[in-house]
Amino acid sequence: MVPLIDSPPVAPGQRPPRRVAVFRALQLGDMLCAVPALRALRAAWPRARITLIGLPWAVSFVERFAPLVDELAVFPGALGFPEQPETDEGLPRFFAAMRERHFDLAIQIHGSGGPANAIVRQLGARACAGFLQPHEAPQPRFILWPDVLPEPRRYLALVRALGLPASSDALTFPLRPGDRDEYAALEARHGIEPERLVLLHPGAQLPSRRWPPARFAEVADALSARGWQIAITGTSSETPITSAVLGAMAAPALHLAGATSLGGLAALVARAQLVVCNDTGISHVAAALRTPSAVVALGSDTRRWAPLNRERHRIVADYPLCRPCSFRDCPYGHPCALNVGVERVVDAALAQLSRYSRTRAAAPGVLHSRGARRATEDRHAT
């Protein structure tokens, strides 16, 4: 059990907080890992107005998870927070605006303590809660950072330490009608065959977390040779990476980078038989939608970041002495990537398909197995 440094902010008989701020200014995968804690907070305090202090992109997260979060307050960035330009210029105005909200409770689930705690203390809340690093002095309603726990369970530990029930650590990603409509249009245009669809997602925010595109291409060729339909996905900014995969492939594939919104990509993941990816946001989307995956995990602490279900989501990793790391670019020649061979990833992918897919694949190297292509497709690698 993670020890509570002091008494929880809501003791029996006290009124639940009406205005709650949650600080987590991070990217998609990080936010999905916080969903179980947000769900527990909402269940405990159904009438509270919960404000997420997050990155600008999280407006779409708040819209999707509206039952859990009421609004987004955009964090302007600060020194020591590399997700945005590192400057304190916007903090005075931001803190002044936050103090006008008169939060009853501000919860820090951005990280292990330190600078994140300093941000939360400036919000003007009646009480704060969060995590402490071992060298930090005890504070009321803060717990020691639970270093041995997987990411979703860290924040559930804080929720429980605050005296609230928190039983489910399952990730979720609600699909909306528009997401399904987008997928249907994508399927019609590209001739997607979901019963044999394998998604390869070679991008990641940090270069140190990317397995080489040429190796993804070899995996794609191997799976195509066994009759699976291959689609390469990514954001529009990742097109150079996805194009490098396609350019190195011998087999045909669907090139869907930049062709979907986040919701449309999630709907695509939900219909796929398998996702092969780096340890990045889409691996958490696959976990939330229960789509089997083979995850090439580079640099990260897999104990912390790998999906909780290690059977449905197979981790392929190497562990040199320099791991885990927080480097953007590996200064040591990227051994954790280069030591992961293509055969290991192919074997993991085929094992997942054998275990979880009931589909009989088509003939080797066939992109469309349903006869004539149903729509004009201009994004094939040939």
UniProtKB/TrEMBL annotation:
The keyword ATP-binding does not apply. CDD domains: GT9_LPS_heptosyltransferase. One of its GO terms (cellular component) is cytosol. InterPro entries: Glyco_trans_9, LPS_LOS_Heptosyltrfase. It comes from the Bacteria. Keywords: Glycosyltransferase, Transferase. GO terms for biological process: lipopolysaccharide core region biosynthetic process. One of its GO terms (molecular function) is ADP-heptose-lipopolysaccharide heptosyltransferase activity. The keyword Cell cycle does not apply. This is Lipopolysaccharide core heptosyltransferase RfaQ. It comes from Trinickia symbiotica.
